[in-house]
UniProtKB/TrEMBL annotation:
One GO CC annotation: cytoplasm
Protein name: Putative hydrolase
Domain Calcineurin-like phosphoesterase: 16-142
Gene3D superfamilies for the chain: 3.60.21.10
Alphabetical keyword list: Hydrolase
């Protein structure tokens, strides 16, 4: 009988070590695990610091970094044996939806030599089905009364729509197909700005996308990130979130050592430093959310192939958040 997985699953009880987006950076993960008092191979506790604590990942284990395969070889058995827990990130979801996509994912599809500035270990083809099965088994959120772990955004209404669902791709497609006759694009002139607005509405209304990629809004003006121009900006949903529960999430890059300016559409943490807690104060006067993506996925920019190609690197690192201590543990990128 096929095992049934819930997309909104219970968080394990007790203290937590919640790890941010790893993005194939096995070396960073090993260093962080050691800082947390854990074995870098088995992920298990090595002393009192990690004893009695559950290890949780907020997704985006893969893509961009040099060894997504190595990361999965550590994390997959630990999650399957319930020695660790993991929620689905948008990169795991993308692998399920478009398994032959090539953006940052040479590690999975192989073929050729891969991006010269982003060398990656390649997964043997005979292991692809097992990896996709693991991705499909991941919940979109882990929740309990005091704390939630989710990849990008905690939205209670979206979570409620997904309760009882057990397949993330089917849930995505069902939401995607709830459109006017002919689809959103057929309802308007493609040259009309309303066409873009319709696509934005559909993306924001998809509960799977909302939890794995977060809501977006039309930016006041187009903006550029690297060589791409964007018209929709990521919405800082945490600015209006008061909890409970406390939300620990990743997805949104927080550049170590930088405090973005308010109003920059490319950086949604305007006015917040990279280690600040987020959200509105709760009844105890303390904030109610924390983003722990500290740009590990950009570490490739700092390596010789990218530097030789003229890529301008940013500061990077990998972090974990200890709950209920609200302690951030950070290891800098090389």
């Amino acid at each position: 009988m096929k095992q049934r997985h819930r997309l909104i699953a219970p968080m394990p009880p007790g203290p937590l070590d919640v790890v941010g987006d790893v993005h194939g950076e096995l070396g960073l993960l090993e260093r962080l695990l050691e800082r947390l008092g854990r074995d870098p191979v088995t992920l298990g506790p090595t002393g009192r610091r990690a004893a009695g604590r559950s290890l949780v990942f907020v997704g985006d284990l893969v893509d961009r970094g040099p060894d997504s395969v190595g990361v999965l070889r550590r994390v997959m058995p630990a999650v399957r044996e319930r020695r660790a827990f993991c929620v689905m990130g948008n990169h795991e979801l993308n692998a399920l939806r478009v398994p032959d996509a090539v953006d940052h994912s040479h590690w999975f599809h192989g073929g050729g030599v891969g991006p010269p500035t982003m060398p990656q270990a390649v997964l043997p083809p005979e292991q692809r089905a097992d990896v996709l099965g693991f991705f499909r088994s991941l919940p979109l959120a882990l929740e309990r009364e005091d704390v939630v772990a989710v990849h990008a955004c905690w939205d209670a209404a979206s979570a409620d729509r997904l309760r009882g669902a057990d397949d993330p791709v089917d849930a995505w497609r069902r939401a995607h197909d709830l459109t006017p006759p002919g689809g959103w694009e057929a309802a308007v002139d493609p040259a009309d700005p309303a066409a873009a607005d319709a696509r934005l509405v559909r993306r924001n209304a998809n509960p799977v996308r909302r939890l794995t990629a977060g809501p977006e809004h039309r930016a006041p003006h187009p903006f550029r990130i690297h060589d791409r121009v964007f018209r929709d900006a990521r919405t800082p949903w945490w600015d209006a979130y008061a909890g409970p529960p406390y939300v620990i999430f990743g997805h949104y890059w927080r550049r170590p050592g930088e405090t973005p300016a308010v109003g920059d559409p490319a950086l949604p943490f305007g006015g917040h430093g990279p280690t600040d807690e987020l959200g509105l104060p709760g009844s105890d006067g303390r904030r109610s959310a924390m983003c722990i993506d500290h740009c590990a996925g950009a570490s490739w920019q700092r390596r010789p192939p990218a530097v030789a190609a003229g890529v301008a690197p940013i500061a990077t690192g990998l972090s974990a958040f200890r709950w209920p201590e609200r302690e951030l543990v950070f290891v800098p990128g090389a």
